[in-house]
Amino acid sequence: MALSKRQRSKVFRGVQYGVLVVVLIVIALVADWGTIKRAFFDFEVMSKLFPDVIFIALKNTIIYTALGFTVGLVLGLVLALMKLSPVPPYRWIATIYIEFFRGIPALLVFIAFNFGIPLAFQVRFDNLTTVTIALAIVGAAYMAETIRAGIQAVPKGQIEAARSLGMSQGRTMATVVIPQAFRIILPPLTNELIMLTKDSSLIYLIGVQYEQLELTKFGRDAMNQYRGMTPILIAGALYLIITLPLGYLSRRLERHTGGKKVS
């Protein structure tokens, strides 16, 4: 007797679950749990990481991300308005910027600002300024496209109604369009914040003092010092403390805005 499509789907899922259970059993039997505990769950090493991993590494990660996101959001808004401008040179400049910085790794931007610009212009920024500018430049390229899509998603009727009340184009954009656009794009902007949180780890390229360490660099230095993966595990857990609530917030905001997509 032939199985229905639903029955075949149930059988297929059952086979998948069975394979997963078998794999987990095999891993549990062959794993050297003593070595795993020493490498990843060394509580003596964990105790030595605190409180610095919180009050230095986690704090700096949040500061770098917040500054980069704030500056990047402002720059992204300017770029989005330039790309929507009726003036062709503004559109060209914004398009070139966005395509360029979306097309290269953030790693190269950090290298350029820490080594290239000082070499070319004899100007050197402090580490906080370098991280803020590098994160903002990268984030702005992505946020500009998100903001542009949000502005274009605002119903045309809202703009026409504002203009019919005698509002200028600039006032209409500032008081009607942009506020509504930001309500639409809050979920993708939250995702950009998560991306910048992870990109802040690139600060290791510029060389920082102990008081300026963020989570990844702190974890790498501690891993080399204690010869184990416990510091990396702690750093990863703290990243999740930042990113998981942000991911949850993004999903809630998307539901609250009716799941309206921007593209």
From TrEMBL:
Localization, UniProt: Cell membrane
InterPro entries linked to this entry: AA_ABC_transptr_permease_3TM, ArtM/GltK/GlnP/TcyL/YhdX-like, MetI-like, MetI-like_sf
Topology term for the membrane: Multi-pass membrane protein
Top-rank taxon: Bacteria
Domain ABC transmembrane type-1: 58-250
GO biological process: amino acid transport
Gene3D superfamilies per the UniProt record, alphabetical: MetI-like
Keyword presence, Cell membrane: yes
Cellular compartments per GO CC: ATP-binding cassette (ABC) transporter complex
Protein transport in keyword set: no
UniProt keyword terms in alphabetical order: Amino-acid transport, Cell membrane, Membrane, Transmembrane, Transmembrane helix, Transport
TM region(s), chain numbering: 12-33, 53-79, 100-121, 230-249
Family: Belongs to the binding-protein-dependent transport system permease family. HisMQ subfamily.
Name recorded for this polypeptide: Amino acid ABC transporter permease
Gene source species: Umezawaea endophytica
